[in-house]
Design goal:
It contains 9 helices and 13 strands. The two termini are about 15 Å apart. The structure holds zinc ion (ZN).
Amino acid sequence: MRVGVDVGGTTVKVGFIDNYEIVDRLVVETKSETLFSDVCREIKEYANKKNYKIDGMGFGLPGHVVGTFIDKLPNVGIEDLELSTIVSKYFPDLKIYCTNDANAAALGELLADSNKKASAYMITLGTGVGGGLVIDGKVRDGDHSNCGEIGHMFIDYVHNYKCTCGLNGCLETVASATGIVRLAKQYYDKFETKIKIDKCSAKSVIDAAKEGDPLGLYVLDIVSDALGRAISVIELAVDVDTFYIGGGVSNAGDILINKINEYYKKYAHFAVKNINIKKAKLGNDAGMLGAAYLW
Ligand SMILES: [Zn+2]
């Protein structure tokens, strides 16, 4: 049995996986100081209770990781940690594998959707924007373990908002949940809108757009334009047939996916006009499934 671990800020999701199916799961609530030892201890106890034999363990981590060395997980508050030293205290002979959470999710979506050796790109639209690349069934981490950091691609020349990374005009300054709220506030005075700006969230803007609200539609148009352009650039570099759009913002559904497709076609090179850009379907399970097939 394979174990896939999807690490979040305080909640860690563990999937017990057999033949590409999550057959059992465990959620570990923890805190950063003891996160990995708590997770390992609980997995060990649970596996013993259920008589599971674990063949390998993979981790999807929200930050920068090189091999099994954790450089930095900004939202978890963990850095400079060799993960294998902790895991080996609980599982002495077990091989472990790590990647960025967006890469793990990309592989999970691909495994659930099509043939196991295919290639695909996944874009995760959450608080920020992440990306993950799978080539011939293998996650591509990159020579600097920075493959897929497309949230910081210079895309928005119009607003040129300052990004948390220090650069300006990054994709995630407009195409994330945070970006959607920022845009709604910027254009609030220009439209008749039902959006309550003091209680504005990405979901409220998207819901308004679905009902035809002019401000909601205007913001969604900017977001889709940015994503369509970003995908047209990524596609020239990686040439895959499928892009999955996941993360909380993707729950906007068809209205967002259709508009991204529309803008993609506008910006795409003629040889790659007809690729698939679709909504990710596994949701929160993608990271666990992908992490379990890193080897
Ligand atoms: Zn940035």
